[in-house]
Amino acid sequence: MKSIQIDAERSYEVIFDDSWRYQLTELLAGRTRAAIIVSENMKENVKVNFEGDCEVFLFAIKDGEEGKSVESLAQVWNWLGAAGFTRSDLIVGLGGGAVTDFAGYAAASWLRGIDWVAIPTTVAGMVDAAIGGKTAVNSDYGKNLIGAFHSPTSVIIDLSWLSTLSDRDFAAGLVEVIKCGFISDGEILTLLADKTLTDIRNDANLIQDLIFRAIKVKADVVSSDFKESFHREILNYGHTLGHAVEIDAKYSLRHGECVAIGMAFMAHLQFSLGLIKEEVRDLHLSILGNLKLPLTYDRQAWPRILGYMYLDKKSRGKSIRLVTITDIGKTSRLESPDEASLLAAYEKVSS
What we know:
CATH superfamily of the largest domain: Dehydroquinate synthase-like - alpha domain
Shape: globular
CATH class of the largest domain: Mainly Alpha
Order of helices and strands: EEHEEHEHEHEEEHHHHHHHHHEEH
Largest sheet: 7 strands, mixed
CATH architecture of the largest domain: Up-down Bundle
CATH topology of the largest domain: Dehydroquinate synthase-like, alpha domain
Number of helices: 14
Strand order of the largest sheet: 1-2-9-6-5-3-4
Strand content: 15-25%
Number of domains: 2
Radius of gyration: 20 Å
């Protein structure tokens, strides 16, 4: 069994195991109550009969980003109160990134913070959302604007969940892996060069290596910068425009699909500003393109997109701040870029 240690406001392990139920049963020992939060589309597939004395409940929220709402959170709060959850009880987030984000914030906000465990079931959940202790729900003004830093006590990675994903969801999740390649571990890009989605899905060893490497990148970052000063912000490479597209599309696109557009945008912007060489720009486009990810968005949406970028969590005052690279594994930042340069880069990814 492989594991990765994360040292943030508390130390915890990311455990690689082929039986999430066994690992969770071990973690329930000594607990009185536990609530497993899942999405509606998974509730029929999750059984709550675990060995031991811990009483386990199941709570389902709406699928996807729609479930990460203040309304859903209020329902969970009321349910936790009615069930009598105390500081010694446990919340478990089992699902994709939206579920683990939501479950983590429910745990952070109940009794000023109770323990929680993340069991991500998607690529994006495994390498990004469940790692690092950033928990959140959405507001009408943006994604993840209501949240807290609250690390899980454990993260359980069971790669067998990935066989349940559609090709679209698998490819979208790989975008977060690719991001880790550009900001830190260039070997990820070497492993993915010239690979199609079919190539990747048919290679279990490659999948495990990619997931492990991406988690290691994030673990190293959050262990050195838990509360997100600049170093942790590098994990948002491609996300400033990506989140704007996600909001504008009303979450009809997958998060990873929007970040793919954001990374393509950054490739063009950075090349136009002389920050990266042509081959680095082209590597962005080829790796993302080989996975058949969307790399363009509506040209007419630019005024709205720009407005959303000014509301990004990295923004300060009235200025946009972008995570940039100057080469593979070498990060920097761009503050207050001129809107003409942003528009020119957006036109390269417009349809």
